[in-house]
Design a protein that fits this description.
- About 30% of the residues lie in helices and about 25% in strands.
- With about 350 residues, the protein is an alpha/beta fold.
- It has a 9-stranded mixed sheet.
- The longest helix has 12 residues.
- About 45% of the residues are buried.
- The structure holds ligand AOF and zinc ion (ZN).
- Converts 2,5-diamino-6-(ribosylamino)-4(3h)-pyrimidinone 5'-phosphate into 5-amino-6-(ribosylamino)-2,4(1h,3h)-pyrimidinedione 5'-phosphate.
- InterPro entries: APOBEC/CMP_deaminase_Zn-bd (IPR016192), CMP_dCMP_dom (IPR002125), Cytidine_deaminase-like (IPR016193), DHFR-like_dom_sf (IPR024072), Eubact_RibD (IPR004794), RibD_C (IPR011549), RibDG_C (IPR002734), Riboflavin_Biosynth_HTPR (IPR050765).
- GO terms for molecular function: 5-amino-6-(5-phosphoribosylamino)uracil reductase activity; diaminohydroxyphosphoribosylaminopyrimidine deaminase activity.
Length: about 350
């Protein structure tokens, strides 16, 4: 199962709206088939592993990181494919949250006389599939917030200089993290100040993450890296009701997808923004700031994972804070996180925090 989970994580960032599942088929102590969900979400992991195993699947055990599907989609159900292959036993980490499956995959297997076990390494599987579970159960993707700051929590000087606070190794680690998410998201201020391309570079990914800019008024320069590459790799722009129609047309002409969202005060409503992204199929979103977007997500307790990169320099109070105003008065109202990892990366420190259940 540990191997199945590892294989499943290979597809993270590339299988949305589907989960990224791993499957290992073992016969008489030997691995005879391995598979994981392919880019775009199909074929499913079991199809890949069964094709490798061929006749060796007969009498074997299949380890799957998620309950095999029971529905007739564009491909026949995996539960049926497992039955047809003659496997004797299926061990699944967790039940599928998709209403079309939700226990029915197990029921199909059992009805056909296949032994079914579940709950093996389920905690890890819950974490790996958290984005898919959030999309199917709450309608929103998992949000990882990443911020790279000075040790006093600033992301730029007062004049806006921000390149580079962290070193090359930390920036490379960020590219690897982008690759494991369906989308990379920034606020309009960051898009204007940094002119980022938000692509994954030098890692040979099969599919680039969607690039999302959150801009209430859509006041984004049409001469920019994002605009230039919008036809090649997806760019989605989330905007509010009063956005300028000429700008909307211009961006659409460049190939961008426009996503209207509700507003809350002077900003887009963070909850509605994520519902729109979940509705569009995203399961894992990597937010790279800036301070206003980070604050609005945190204030609504919508950040599931926080990844901080801390650099060994001080910028001072005139600098731009990593997290903007959250309108918080009482400590009891602060979103809480549990430390899950600390690591030195080059000259910088990485700390990873997971949303705590209150
Ligand atoms: C599996 N193995 O590798 C994956 C599964 O649109 P479809 O037909 O591809 O079905 C998508 C659903 O299948 C998805 O919502 C989830 O319930 C399940 N994903 N199931 O047996 C896999 N990726
Ligand atoms: Zn399936």
């Amino acid at each position: 199962m540990a191997l199945a989970l590892t294989l499943g994580r290979r597809g993270q960032g590339m299988t949305w709206p589907n989960p990224s599942v791993g499957c290992v088929i073992v016969r008489e102590g030997r691995v005879v088939g391995r598979g994981w969900t392919q880019p775009g979400g199909r074929p499913h992991a079991e199809t890949e592993a069964l094709a490798q195993a061929g006749a060796a699947a007969r009498g074997a055990t299949a380890y799957v990181s998620l309950e095999p599907c029971a529905h007739q989609g564009k491909t026949p159900p995996c539960a049926q494919a497992l039955i047809d292959s003659g496997v004797a036993r299926v061990v699944a980490a967790v039940e599928d949250s998709d209403a079309r499956v939700a226990g029915q995959g197990f029921a199909m297997l059992r009805a056909a006389g296949v032994t079914v076990e579940t709950g093996v390494l389920d905690q890890q599987a819950m974490r790996d599939h958290a984005g898919f579970f959030l999309r199917t159960e709450q309608g929103r993707p998992l949000v990882t917030l990443k911020l790279a700051s000075s040790f006093d929590g600033r992301i730029a000087t007062a004049t806006g200089q921000s390149k580079w606070i962290t070193g090359p190794q930390a920036r490379r680690a960020v590219h690897a993290m982008r690759a494991r998410h369906d989308a990379v998201m920034v606020g309009a201020g960051t898009a204007r100040a940094d002119d980022p391309s938000l692509t994954v570079r030098d890692l040979g990914v099969a599919q680039q993450p969607v690039r999302i800019v959150v801009s209430r008024h859509l006041d984004l320069p049409l001469m920019s890296q994002l605009a230039r590459s919008a036809a090649e790799h997806p760019v989605w722009l989330c905007h509010g009701p009063g956005a300028d129609s000429e700008r909307m047309q211009a961006w659409e002409g460049l190939g961008a997808k426009l996503i209207p969202c509700a507003v809350d005060g002077s900003q887009l409503d963070a909850g509605d923004l994520l519902q729109q992204l979940g509705g569009a199929g995203l399961t894992r979103v990597f937010c790279e700031g800036g301070s206003a977007l980070a604050a609005s997500l945190l204030a609504e307790d919508l950040v599931d994972e926080f990844v901080g990169f801390g650099a060994g320099l001080a910028i001072g109070a005139e600098g731009l804070p990593a997290i903007g105003a959250m309108g918080l008065d009482r400590l009891e109202d602060a979103p809480l996180f549990t430390l899950s990892e600390t690591r030195q990366i080059g000259a910088d420190i990485l700390h990873r925090w997971t949303r705590a259940l209150k």
